[in-house]
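To: structure desk
From: M.T.
Subject: fold request, one chain
Message: Could you run this one when you get a chance? Sequence is below, nothing fancy, just the single chain.
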Amino acid sequence: MQANETHTDAKSNGWLWGRWSALGLTVALATAIIDQAHKYWMIYIYDIQSKGRVEVTPFLDLVFVKNTGISYSMFATDTMEGQLILASFAAVASIAMWVWLSRSATGRLMTWSIALIIGGAIGNAIDRLTLGGVADFFSAHAFGFYWYVFNIADMAIVAGVVGLLYDSFRPESA
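Reply: Done. Structure tokens follow.
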């Protein structure tokens, strides 16, 4: 089956469903559901907002930050209209990624990678529509340097990008 994984699927795929679409849909939905379940638990059950900063390890804290922008709070907007624009951008990007997955995915790694990006984008878009910004919880730090605060959706997006980069640089299977 591995030899068949590398053939070009674009000719046999429709625009919205292809050879790897079932796996992609499963991974994207699982990613968004896990992200949303974690956010629900952190906000409404654990009640992270009332706890402030919770030290988990010497290099990781749990906090609650509502990011009204994108990475590093760029394009921050406190209006619902601004959040709708950012959520719409995530929806359009997710659709474009889905078409790419359906038409061009050549194997499991590429499928997982694209699906993780889609699931993460959907998870963060849901936050924008329901919370007015993206809920972030994980604060990594070392030697007085604090990295940005992130969530499970962000980790999925980064893992997807790393997977796509790895997939693009590895030699084709014989």
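Reply (cont.): The beta strands are 54-57, 60-67, 134-142, 145-150. Let me know if you need anything else for the meeting.
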